[in-house]
Structures are given as C-alpha cells and as structure tokens.
Design a protein that fits this description.
This protein is mainly alpha-helical and about 325 residues long. It contains twelve helices and two strands, in the order αααααααααβαααβ.
Amino acid sequence: MASADVPDLDEELLALAIQCKVPEAYHQCLSGFDVPLFGCLATLLEKVSAPESAAEILLVQASFRLLFQKCTNQAAASQGSEPKAPSSASTSGWVEQFPPKLSGEQVIQLRSAFGASYPDEVLDHENTPGSRMLALTSKVMQPGELKWIPWKFRMSKAQEEAFNLRRPSKVPKFEDFIYDEIPARELPQGQVGASFLQGVLGLMSVSASLVQGAHLHNLRLYERKFIKLACSRLEGSTGLRQPNIEELQAADRHLWGIMADLVNVHKWTLNDALTEVVEIRGDMSAMLQPRAAVSKFRPEGRKGDGKKGRPPQESSSGKGGKGQR
C-alpha cells in the first residue's frame, strides 16, 4: 500500500519515517499518529504481517526504533524541555528494572578484578550472571539505591542465552520492534531443594561481588545460612514442613529490605549489613523456621464389605435355622 493511500497519515511523521528508512509497507502503522503522539507510544498494533526475511526484520526494528527516538526528542524539544530520564524511585517501569547493559570493556574489567580478588572462584556459563542481571546489580549497588532483586530476574549467562534462543512467535507484535522483551526465568511451585536455592542465591553472591558491592565471603555466609535453615531435615512425625518458594522469596525480600535500610538510610556498608543480618539479628531464623504441615482430611465412614463401600449385610438365617439365636 502506497503512503498516499493511507488515510490520516501525518505529513510530518511520514517525513520522519522516510528519513528513518521505515519500509513503505509499514507506513500504515502510523495512521492516526502525529509526532508527539508517536513519541508517547503506549499502544499495541497488530495490523501488519511478519517480515519474511531476517534482513527485513532487522531493518524494520532499527528504523522504527530510530523513528520512535526522533519523535520523542522532537516532542520534548517542542515543549521546551529535554527528555527526562526515568526516576530512580519508580518501581513499576521496565526501564527502571533493567538499566542499560554494561559494555564489553566494563564486563572484562569486572571479571579481571574478580579473578584477582578471588582466584579460587571459577566462573562458567552456569554461575556467571547474565548481562541483564549484572547491569541491574550494578544499578542497585549504587549509593542509596540498594534493594532486593526478584528471583525471576536472577538469570545466569546460560539461562539468558536459552531465553534469547526461544522460538519467536509467528506474528510479532508492533511493540516488539521498539521495546526489548523483559528476560525472566520460570520459577517452580511449592517446595524447592538446596540445589535450586544455591543457584538463585549463588548468582546474587557472584553478581554483587563482581560489581564490588560486597565481599564474596560475606555474601556466601548469607547464602549458606539461608540454605541451611530453609532445607533443614524434618521427621514426618513432627507435623512440620519446610518453607515453600513463596515463603522463601518473602524471607529473602525481607532480609534484603533490612540491609537496604541500613545501607541507604544509616549509611552502613553492605558488608556490615550482611554481618548484622547473618550473625546478630534473628530475622533469618524466624522467617525460615518450619511451618505446620496441613494434614490431609480423611473422613472415617462406615466400614463396608470392600465392594464400593457398601455396608455389611445383616446375617440371615441359613438352613435349619442356622444363624438364628
């Protein structure tokens, strides 16, 4: 469809689209938008079919992102102000949750410093945090920014690569051309074992020490005590159970909230806050104590004769009056 045949197509926005080399077949997506409105894009359009080739996909993604950036800058300039960076206090936007990835040079420097400080620690794809988690950890380790990182965002390099290699949907959504998909891992339900906790907590320990937020030894102490309390052996006769994954996440979030308050408000170091939580306070033991197990209710009915729960038959008289009193 030619651009002239598309109704309600803003001339200024069309000029920017042509400047950004947006393919003409996708100009229909801009129908009804002007520059300020497209700069504040928050809609989902599914009017077009998927590009057929990988080269066309790259062209569409790059051109739409460039157009979106130009519209944002132009709309902000028309209002007499520059685009404002997202507030660090916001907790709802994906931009705040996922800051820009660290450059390759920064990652190499962090890994070199980590290897020099902890020569016995071997990093591989399974225990090295992914680029998204490493960037997020670097963000929350800034002064006054410390907070808990949800478990679903704690992904290793191998898990992040597996996430990116998933089979894409047949018809991509329009917003996929502008925004990156948020990487998140699927968490199990119910009870989890020590190996799962070691993977989740160990990634946090390595990530925080990589960005030099705290010493790895103090982070390992937190990790080991958490696993020891969460996976304590319980006899069936006690009527108790271990915390489930929801309760474990709530405990981890509560403990990191305590450390965040000590670091952000009272200006402690994270190493001192870890020592306070692990060795002095009893919050970890209280949050990870065994819970009462809910016993399965089994109603006791009348004892049957073993055939579909039918009640036993009354004794009847036999030959010669047998069975009668």
